[in-house]
Design brief:
- By secondary structure, the protein is mainly alpha-helical.
- It has a single domain, classed as MetI-like (MetI-like fold, Orthogonal Bundle), CATH 1.10.3720.10.
- Helices cover 70% and strands 0% of the residues.
- The longest helix is centred in the N-terminal third of the chain and has 37 residues.
- The protein starts with 21 loop residues before the first helix and ends with a helix.
- About 2% of the residues have low confidence.
Length: 291
């Protein structure tokens, strides 16, 4: 009698409980959808976002799903094309601010002394002004353009990351594994790179994810004020500004505003899920409430 050969059971990939929560799934779905739109919008069968027509300020219809603006341009196509502006620039803003702030904050926290005082006093000087006001001043001084708006926002955002990174490094540099590495001959920057930074990367990643929505709001706000995107570039903030000037045509500001709202809320949902997944205390609570 031959023994039956049993096939090995399939391994199921189980996502952490935090990523299976409804809000996390909704946030990830919305972000993936907008990323696909931003990537595929050049080949989608939609109208040219810059093409003008005689159908001026027409309400949403089968021909123009989101209506048309004051120049007869299709609001639906301009809203989709706006994702190619807002999403990549938000990535640039977060990555650049994260890198600059993390490097300066790590050096300030690990080296200490006069270096710490100089970096943190510069950060305090930036914090002394309201974020949007200081960004407006810098963008106005440089001139209205998306590039200058990005530079202005990086200038006002890096202290947020620097302060958090400094606090994390101050807490980590006194740990036993860091001290042991130094006793074994590791130099200051080797110890910082090898022992400290890997252990503070997760909180900085959560902060960066949560900051995506804020950067989109700030960038849209500068464009709304005329300090960001220059016409005829389809950008959500400038489209909302056009809608305010044509207040009776409600669709002009509604659909770009909903696009901003959906992306900001989705990144907040995703950031909360990432925080819950990486924080042991929160992860344990989430796991306990998941069936």
């Amino acid at each position: 009698m031959t023994a039956a050969v049993l096939a090995p059971p399939r391994r199921r990939i189980a996502l952490p409980a935090a990523w299976r929560r409804p809000l996390a799934v909704i946030g990830a779905t919305v972000i993936v959808l907008w990323v696909l739109i931003a990537v595929l919008v050049p080949v989608l069968p939609i109208q040219d976002p810059l093409k003008q027509s005689a159908a001026v300020l027409t309400a949403p219809s089968a021909a123009h799903w989101f209506g048309t603006d004051e120049l007869g341009r299709d609001v639906f196509s301009r809203t989709l094309w706006g994702s190619q502006v807002s999403l990549p620039l938000a990535v640039v803003l977060v990555v650049a601010s994260l890198l600059i702030g993390s490097v300066l904050g790590a050096v300030a926290g690990y080296v200490g002394g006069a270096v710490d005082e100089v970096i943190m006093r510069i950060a305090d000087l930036v914090f002394a002004f309201p974020t949007i006001i200081l960004a407006m001043v810098v963008a106005a001084a440089l001139g209205p353009s998306l590039t200058n708006a990005v530079v202005a926002l990086i200038f006002v955002n890096w202290p947020n990351y620097a302060r958090v990174m400094r606090a994390l490094v101050l807490g980590a540099r006194g740990q036993e594994y860091v001290i042991a590495g130094r006793l074994l001959g590791a130099g200051p920057f080797t110890s910082l790179r090898r022992d400290v930074l890997p252990n503070v990367a997760a909180p900085m990643g959560v902060l960066g994810t949560l900051d995506f929505g804020n950067q989109i709001l700030l960038l849209s706000g500068l464009s709304f004020l005329g300090l960001g995107a220059v016409p005829p570039t389809p950008e959500w903030g400038s489209m909302v500004a056009d809608g305010v000037q044509q207040f009776s045509s409600w669709w002009l500001a509604t659909f770009p505003g909903l696009a901003i709202f959906s992306v900001v809320v989705a990144f907040n949902f995703l950031g909360d899920a990432l925080r819950d997944a990486l924080d042991p205390r929160t992860a344990g609570a989430v796991q306990g409430t998941t069936v």
